[in-house]
Amino acid sequence: MLDIKGIWKTFNAGTVNEKTALRGVDLHLDNGDFVTVIGGNGAGKSTLLNAIAGTWLVDEGTISIDGTDVTKLSEHKRAKYIGRVFQDPMMGTAATMQIDENLALAMRRGKARTLRTGISREERENYKELLKILDLGLENRLTSKVGLLSGGQRQALTLLMATLQKPKLLLLDEHTAALDPKTAAKVLETTEKIVGRDKLTTLMITHNMRDAIAHGNRLIMMYEGKIVVDVSGEEKRKLTVERLLSLFSQASGSDEADDKLLLG
Which residues partner with 98 through β-bridges? Predict the structure, then answer.
């Protein structure tokens, strides 16, 4: 479902601020893989997701989604393959619109526009059923403005909207980092439900090692623009924080772990 071969990305090339963020990254995801991505500040995690999404084009290498080479495609042309949830809960929804209106926008994404009026009763009933998976009572608040929701409610709604069209690839960019621990756990639980139900191929960046270990069927750790740890299957199921730190030290040749990782 995702095939990345030898991608490089350098920012501010030829200046004193030159920074090589990705160094020949190779990554292959099978259909239905749920991969958690972890690493310290500046490891290349968000650069990797932005490269996949087309936020910027890579300098070298290729990126394919479901057999289609998207390396040269712009961000909006790749959008039909990708669902994405950002760290900021405010980014994925329209605050001045109602919950049902936000869902209608997501449901109509990529489809031809018509002159048909508003949202039908049948659609509203469908939205109520879809919202029940969030277990937040939002199915009874369809006409509430999204701007009145809490950060956690908005992020859960964004997750639902990003997955309505069952994207080829779901990108989660530290989507619980701005939430309190209880709300973050709820959103992660919902993530597991939706990804498992729809068998979505997913890349989830997290700053929390325990979350990276607990979720998904595969874990990769990045360091200085490279993937230095890649565990899956039985090894992933038996993984502990201590073992992960040991693997990181062996692979990177460094005993330094980012404070954010350890505190997480």
Answer: 145
Query: Domain residues of the chain, as ranges?
Result: 1-78+217-264
Beta strand ranges found along the chain (DSSP E): 2-11, 19-29, 34-39, 60-65, 68-69, 82-85, 169-173, 202-205, 218-223, 226-232
Cα separation, 210 vs 151, in Å, equals 22
Which CATH code is given to the segment(s) 1-78+217-264?
3.40.50.300
Tell me the pTM. 0.90
Burial of 263 (0-12, 13-18, 19+ CB in 10 A): exposed
Residue 114 neighbours by CB under 8 Å, 6+ apart: none
In the three-class reduction of DSSP (H, G, I as helix; E, B as strand; rest coil), residue 58 is classed as coil
Q: Report d(CA 100, CA 122) in Å as an integer.
A: 12
User: Hey, what amino acid is at 221?
Assistant: M
Length of the chain: 264
145, β-bridge pairs: 98
What are the pLDDT digits (tens) for 219-259? 999 999 999 999 999 999 999 999 998 888 888 776 666 55
7, β-bridge pairs? 25
